[in-house]
Amino acid sequence: MRDSFVKSLIEIARIDSRVVVLTPDLGYSVLDDFQTKYPDRFINVGIAEANAVSIASGLALSGKIIYIYSIIPFITMRPFEQIRLDIAYMNTNVRLVGVGAGVTYGQAGPTHHAIEDIAIMRSLPNMTVFCPGDPWEVEQGILQSLDHKGPIYFRLGKRGEPRIARESLDFSFGKASKIRSGHHVSIITTSNTLDLAQLISQDLLLSNISVDLTNMHTIKPLDTGYLLTLIKRNIPIYIIEEHSIIGGLSSAIAEFVLELPSHPAIRRFALKDEYIKSVGSQNYIREQQGMTRKNIVGQILSDINKESASL
Amino acid sequence: MASLAKSSHVASALSIVDILTVLYFHYLRIRSTDPLWIKRDRFILSKGHASSALYATLALAGFFPKSYLEQYYCDNGILPGHVDFTSVPGLEASAGSLGHGLSIGIGMALASKMDKQDNRVVVLMGDGELNEGSVWEGILFAPHHRLDNLTVIIDYNKWQACGRTNEILNLEPLLNKFISFNWDVETIDGHCFQEITQALEKPRSKPRVIIANTTKGKGVSFMEDDLVWHYRSPNEEELNQAMKELL
Hints:
- The complex is a heterodimer of chains A (about 300) and B (about 250).
- Helix content of chain A is about 40%, strand content about 20%.
- With about 300 residues, chain A is an alpha/beta fold.
- In chain A, the strands form two sheets. Chain A has a seven-stranded mixed beta sheet with strand order 2-1-3-4-6-5-10.
- In chain A, strand 1, helix 2 (about 30-35) and strand 2 form a beta-alpha-beta unit.
- Chain A is globular and about 65 Å long.
- Chain B is α/β, with parallel strands linked by helices.
- Chain B has helices spanning about 1-5, 10-15, 15-25, 50-60, 100-115, 135-145, 165-170, 175-180, 195-200, 235-245, and strands at about 40-45, 120-125, 150-155, 160, 165, 185-190, 210-215.
- Chain B has a five-stranded parallel beta sheet, with helices on both faces. In chain B, strands 4-5 form a two-stranded antiparallel ribbon.
- The mean pLDDT of chain B is about 95.
- The chains are: A alpha/beta (about 300), B alpha/beta (about 250).
């Protein structure tokens, strides 16, 4: 996802001279190509995130479109009040691009884990929260961000997330992306668990369970029209996200569902409300947290078996 | 305004009136009839709580009707206590939380350099505001990028929210701090039009800081240098007395 981001960034810089990239001294080797091509539109601000965000606001108020690149906790949490006032309140054209969704930086420890970012970013008025699930969505998001008015938070993975084959190539912010249609259960995912959800769907198909799979790449604004249609089908809904169980995609959906007269059974797979101190890779931590293909498939099959037994 | 609204920070506002007067009626290249003129200079009031002084100056400069000043800090009002840049024409950035204005101004100064334009950017900050850490990130940044189109004015009235600046968190030696951060520095009487003008206009090759020694509550004998007017607004009798002294 990170490589697609840089390639797309170079592409939009080529077509629009307003594009400027800032980094608070991260992205060693990642942003080199951009810096080489557009040295006058690249600023390493130094390790000073608050300053970087407010400078971005000032540049945007002068007509630029700013992409600030860093690791998620350092670009969303360290300068949160600058984001709140200088980006969200003033509704400036700043794109906060964070890399390392969820426990992408597993071994690095909790300082580098991004498990609360969606919760805080989606609480900000004016903020679009965009969590692409594969390189294609990154490319689409970066391209469309040129014409978007107001701030956007990009939540990127880092490892080589695969391109996911999908039913529809329609893309716009705020519109759910249908990956495949199915009729037994529905899975909604976001961000860097899209490929996991895709594998789970394939596994379930082997047990003759047909999965309707959606990537909710934009968590704010949430595609409530799409959700309503889905809910009306009255099949069980499973939500998978590599974010804290508090405040992420599943919370956003729960807030919407709360005001409906009824809804099908919903089960959530997310990270526990804790700082993850077990040392290990993203896959290792997913295992520790029960966020594996095997565990989730097992849970869904067990739910279906119970349901059939009770009929 | 302050009396009608029963708002606070009247003394903070009086502290910067002379500086704003020089800026808006002499120094800044702005057009009240074309507030978004692309070649305009930018002014940012970083100490957003002194908004009443800025609103009054902008109204006098013709950016909006003076009657708006009666719509300050009140129900169904036009002008909020802290600057919202969408409220009236002529405002460049919102403010109210301390320590944001300098970095926003740096962004504007950078944009002007990128576009090879000669817009000048002036940021007016409070002295207490220099306690904020992010301000020093900006102070480090501006000379590194040779932003000679940026001027920072420090309203050095030596008071902050809970007491004297040198008792809460001492800023001294302030001048030397800026010199060591590689700024062009000027120290002036912030109530002397001539000194303010000269400090703004002197040629420079670096970002400039003007340390303006000021008096909180300037011009009203019973408000001068008294922290209580950071919080109180004048009653009718006090207002009459103050207006007599100011006019």
